[in-house]
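Record copied across here:
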Amino acid sequence: MILLDALAAAVIIACALYMILSRNLVRILLGLALMATGVNVMLFVVGGNGVRQPPLIRDGEQVLGPSADPTSQALILTAIVIGFALTIVLATIVLRGWRSTGSLDARDLEATEQQRDAESIGPAS
């Protein structure tokens, strides 16, 4: 089962990398969101799923018995929040780029930036 989960995470991350290498800004945005999902699945796989008992010390005992690892759960929760925030920030940047150029192609944004830089420097003397 762990091998299947690891394979699923690898496929998700591979699809995300393919989308990130695109020149379309929406595909890049969706690829980064998919990458965050792939990382979450990978953290889930690393955490394992052997024991399902919560990590609580029972009454009268001094040592924690076999239990689920709370570190991977905390990392996944943190990664979900960071991935969501990253997606929102990048969606805002994509929207601003589309409004300024009318295109979702990354090459058009780069051409616009080079044109603005040339205008701000002025003619060569």
